[in-house]
Structures are given as structure tokens and as C-alpha cells.
Amino acid sequence: MIDLPKPKQDVLDRRDVVHAGLCAILPEGGVITDPVRLKPYETDGLSSYRQMPLAVVLPETTEQVAAVLRFCHQNGVRVVPRGAGTSLSGGALPLADAVVVGMMRMNRILEINYADRYALVQAGVTNLGITKAVETDGFFYAPDPSSQLACMIGGNIGMNSGGAHCLKYGVTANNVLGVTLVTIDGDIVQLGGTHLDNGGYDWLGLVIGSEGQLGIATEIVVRILRAPEGTRAMLAAFRANEIAGACVDAIIGSGIIPVALEFMDRPAIHACEAFAHAGYPLDAEAMLIVEVEGSIAEQDALLGRIREICGQFDPLSLKVSQSAAESAAIWKGRKGAFGAIGRISPDYLCMDGVIPTSTLPDVLGRIGAMSEQYGLKVANIFHAGDGNLHPLIMFDANDPASLHKAEAFGADILKLCVEVGGCLTGEHGVGVEKRDLMGVQFTETELDQQRRIKTAFDPDWLLNTAKVFPLSASIPRAA
Amino acid sequence: MIAPDTEEGFAAAIRTAVAAREPLAIEGLGSKAGFLRPVQVADTLSTRGFSGIPLHAPKELVVTVRAGTRLDALETRLAEAGQHLIAEPPHYTFLEAGAQTVGGIVAANLSGPRRIAWGAMRDHLLGMRAVTGRGEIIRSGGRVLKNVTGLDLCKLFAGSYGTLGVMTEMTLKVLPAPEATGTILLRGLQPDQAVEALATALGSPWSVSGAAHLPQEAAMAMGYEQPVTLARVEDFADSVTYRLGRLCELLRRFGIAEKLGTEASRTLWRAVRDGEALPVQPNDAIWRVSVRPSYGPTILRRAHDAGMFGYFDWGGGLVFLTGPATVEAHEAVVAATRRTKGTWWLMRAPEALRHHADAVPSEPEALATIRRRVVAAFDPAGILNPGRLFAA
Q1: Residue A76: what pLDDT?
Q2: Which of A169, A173, A219, A116 shows the shortest CA–CA distance to B158?
Q3: To probe the interface with B, which of A89, A116, A176 has the most B CB atoms within 10 Å?
Q4: Is the ipTM of this complex over 0.95?
């Protein structure tokens, strides 16, 4: 189980003072202290962990966020930033002595500029909301995490979120031009803007993916891109993970970069097919979804080449989508993977390691062996183009021993990812979940250097305390 | 000059300098020594003795390079595998030495025309090893394409000009080089019309990967008689042919669009990338300005009024300017850019001007305070390229 730092008694003792101070800053209804109304904020997408916060505030302007942070800083109160609360790593898990700053009321799109291809949005706008606002004009916002219907752009900034299409379009950091950041001192600083490169240090690049350790993003300038003429997907089914892995190598080696290249193993195929009825091949050990873009003729040409390459790997079946509806069905299975696993197992942990793609067969073999050793089932979904592996470990949360086993299994998988040359997390973030594994990937010297940057922004360690860095190191700093 | 051939050699050199309190100039081959602010140092620590390519995994789209490796050597190696550097880093004609290192191009975060569509050097820096001003060896990122583990020091180091640490090794994302390149060329447009034409092209579904405009003086430097506006497409040959056709139709209202094939396109875009089109005189200063694309013409106009010439890339978002190396000219660039909330670099100037002038825009005080703390966190003794980016 994950430890949280001991609440600051002096803050708990001043609960009423803190509440009153926050109420003086925010408009009516902007401060929540009633336990019943606090309840929805006690957890996030990592629902095994729950902790009621001291209070929740729902600011409506950047200035209110600044006033809240200044107040918290002056009073030594910890702060937990929160978007939609979809973090799978516990990034928005509250602390008993912390004020949760919920960004959902800052949900306006402030400007859309097609000539300069950007949108200025508040942090509480949903990821999909940006694309919805520009798609009738043929544009889109590229990063597309599975939670895109709910997750907010502010949270995407925190975690540097990815998605299924980042092989071609990159992750959040590659698609954001500017951020308005509120520091723990209550200063409002503009990082980047509506231009591409920045003179001086790349604070924007440092802040994106910093998991709320350095400040709170209130307004964001995102790049919007013109959508391609069309997209089309195909399915290829193979007899073994090794064969599918070799096929991925051959596709990339041919000079084609598909817009998405997704891999599913046998348990994932079965779970998703039962859920989505997408026509997934149930006789296969491994399956690829390959998506290309362009005009109909360009799609035909690319899918023809990919079909030919897949044909050299003794496929069990190849199915090229013939319509937008068929492509949508193919993706429905993949995008619904988490829900599908949820139907066959009461609970699951979604891991997020990254591996060099060449190590996939070896890694899947070793995960299979661990699965037997732990007695827990696992299904693997893999962004094959970029090496981001999502093992879904199935367990029963009603049985504490089962959760502990699942967590130990997950930790072993992540250690394996690092061992083969990869990393702990590709898009979900470290949060509380992987905090104590940071020493597997980094030396103490490296962690110290990162912690000094944290200290430079947040000298008292009030921002999202007890996340990202191993607890043993953040407690003394945050005392 | 100290030019270690091991990572530990860099660490030892830095520890010695810290102990002696003697600042070091950090460089590769010194090609960018005339960029930004000059540094007052006792010695130079160069990466030139530390070269090589420990890893190239073409099917995983990654290459790991030691900092002192020559950029052209890396590009040749990638080309042999049918790949290229995505950000299309420039080989500026105005460098002090002909050759530059990979470490230098990353530390300066310099990107070419393709940046408008595919991202900057900083976007493709997947991992690095570096020696900090504490003499400590640190890593950030890794050798995989996706990684959000811990703070992203790679982005902080890209563009930091060796002021936080010496990057010794970097891992870059690479992509297959396109089979064909094609260009749409429009003649005689004014900068405002050019930006509109380029915005139309960049806002089309046809994956434009270069969007530049050369006004009269710059066009003449390239052998054209009137201004030229350029939009590029790179992909498989059939796709390039198809998209050039569609772009010609789309841009018809801007005049008769000419199509250039692969060879002519590559020559022309190399010139745009490298600043060849800049009508630069030997003692002139050079500025690089990054603004919202539609502000590009305003910057050009204001600079022209102050006696400067230039052209723009990135659809208007990157403006190269050259003119007399005077405080007045510099102030004109600063004032014009400030009004657009953009950013600028004093890329080349005689040392006298670089001593007096800021090299990049100054920060608001709240950010400057944080910046000083962050720099001190990496280099508490202030021995790595002190003052190169900011005077204080």
C-alpha cells in the first residue's frame, strides 16, 4: 500500500481559518468543505486509493487561482491540482491537509485562430472538447488519450498525455505553444505564447509533464492541425507475438509511418471482441491495428504496401476496412479496451511501461511467466510504433491480498521495462503509483537534481506533495 | 582547450574548474561562438574529442550520438539507412567554423523549415547524458519514443547553450527520409499576401512541410527577380504529385503556381534552411525572430524601416533579419518583437554589441527569480558559459 505523508497538525488545527480564507477569495459556491460534497474528490482514476482533502476550491479565473496559491503558500497549506480526476497514477489523489484546486469551472475556449493554427483554452476544457470546437472547420487537436471524452487539457499538461496517434503527431509537449502558469507564490507567468520556439530556457517544456510539481496551468495555447482527407484502418492477425513484432519492424523499416500502429495480445483480443463485436480474429495470438491517412488513393496505396508486408509474415487473416463505419468498429474495440477488461474482471490495474520495440516478444514472454507465478491474469495492449506497453492486470479489490499481488506484479513489469532499456511510464505519469519505483530508473544523484528544480519553483514543497519523488525524500523537504 | 574523450573526463574538468573557481566556455567546434552573449572565461571545454554513434536502431527510429559527433557525419550515417533528422537542423552559412557538432545543434535548439510541421530539435531529443556544473553525471529521458518519467530535463537542456551542463550523449528520434519532395512556387507576392497563401497551404489537408517567403532582396540573393513564396510537400512520389496538384488549385487566387521537382526543391529548401537567402554583409548582425506566423510581415516591415533585410520561414513564424550591428538596429528588432509577444535571438554580432545588448528577451521578475534558482541548482559556482544567455 502507498503511504501518504503525515498531515500537518497545525494546518488541520486551523481548518476553520483556512476555510474562511478561501471563502474570502472565491465566489459563492467556489469552496467545498462539506464531507458529502467532498466525497467525489477523494480519489481519481487510481481508485484503490482514497483520501478526503481539507477542502476543494473551484476557481473561475487565473487571478483566483493565484490568490488561492498565495494564500496557501502564506499559510503553509499543501495544494493538489486537479482536472477531471482521470489520472491512472493517482496524480490527483488528495492529502488530508491539502486544498484541492479543481479546474473544471475554467472550461471556456477563449480563442480559435485558424490562420495561425492555434486555440487558446482554459485548463478545464476537455481534450475532446478542443477537437469538437474546431472539427466542423476541418481541424483537430492531435493528442488523444483514451480518456479524452473526460480528461482536461490542464491535466494533459500535467501528465504530458499521449494517445494512440502520437507515433505521427507527438504527445502533449509537441502540441502546446504556451501556458499561463501560476506559481506557488501566486505569480502569474506566461510561458511560450502563440509562436513556435522560445528564446532563453524552455520552461514550457519543463512544465509540461511535471505533474503539478511546479505550478498550476490555467490557460493553454494548443496547436490545432488540419485533419487529413481521410483515415482508414486495417487488422492483421498473427500466430505468435514474435511474428507480429517482426511485422511491426518490417512496416517501419519500409519507410511507412502509419498514423497509428496498435498491438493486442490474445487475452486483449478476446476481451475487446466480446465487448465491441468488431470482428476481431479470435484464433490469433496477436493482432495489429494499422491506420493510415490521406486521400482514398493514398490510403489504398499505403494499405496495399502494408498488406503486402503483412503477407510475408504468414498472417491468419488480413482485413482492410472498406468504410468509415468499419474503421470506427475496429477502433471501438481498442478504445473500449479498459471497459472490456472491466467486464471480465471486477478490478484491474493499467500499467504504462515503455520498452524498445525490438524487446516486445521477450517482454511479453516474461510477463506471461510472471502472470502464472502471481496467479493473476493479464492482457496486453501496446502502442507498437512507439513502444508504450499497457499490461492490464486483473484482480479482485475485495481481497486485499489480491490487490497487493497485483501491485507487486505491476512493479515487476515496470522493473522489467527499465531493465530492457525502457522506462516506468510513457503517458500516465508517475503520480503516487510509481513514486517509489523512481529509484529503479534514476540514481540518487539524478533524483536530487530533479528535486532541486522542484525546490526552485516550490521551496516549501507544497505543490502536489508526495507524488513523483520517492516519499522518503519528499517528507523531510515538505516537513 | 580541454577536449576529453570520456564522460568522466568532462566531469573531472568541471570539478577542477569549480575548485579553482575558473569559468569555462562550453563548445563543440566553436561554430556558434559568435552567437548570443560573449563569455569571460579562463579556458574552453570542448566536446570535439568525444564523438561516435553508440546506437542506431533504424526500426525503432532512434539514434544515440556522442556530443562531439559532427552533424554532417550523423546525417550521412542516417541517409545510408534511408533516414533523416526530423527537425532538419540548419547548417548556417554564417557559422564561425564550417562544421558543427550534434551537441551544439541540440544545445542551441536550432531547427529548419520542417519544424513548422514536424517539431523542433527539442521535440525529438528523447534522452541525454550530461555533466552538470556540479561535476555530476546525470541522465534524463531514455532511448524510447515515449517517456514521462520524472521532470523533462531534455527540453530544459535543448536551447540552454551549455549553461546548465555539458550534454555528452543524446538520443534522437529519427524518421524515414521521404522518397520525393515537391515545391509550389508563387512569384511577386507581398509579405502579407504571402503569409495568407502559406496559411492557406498549411491549413490544407495536404501535409505541407515547409512554408517560406523571400522578399525582393532575399529572392535576388537566390537568383530570382521578384519575391518568391514557397510551400513544400515531402512523401512518397505519388503522394507528392497528387498534393502538389491539389495545392496548385487551392492557391490559384494567389497567382500562377509553379511546381518544382525533388532536386530543385531540395536545393532551394537547403538555402532557406541555411540562411543562404540572407543578404548579409561581413560586419552585419543577424537576428532570428519567432512570432505568431501572421505577425511575420509586420516584423519584416518594421525591420526594413530600420535598415534591415530578411525573409521568413515557418509560414511567417520565423523571421531572419540582417542589418547594421548597431544598438539602434537591435532596439528596433526588440521593440517590434515585443509588440507581437514573440521572441528573438541575437544570432551574430561583433562582440561590442553582444556585450551591451540582451541576447534573448529578458524575463519578468517572477520568472527571472526562478531561472536564477534553477541555473544555480545545476551550476552553483556559475562556471558553465556564464552570461551566455542572460547577463544576470
Answers
A1: 97
A2: A173
A3: A116
A4: yes
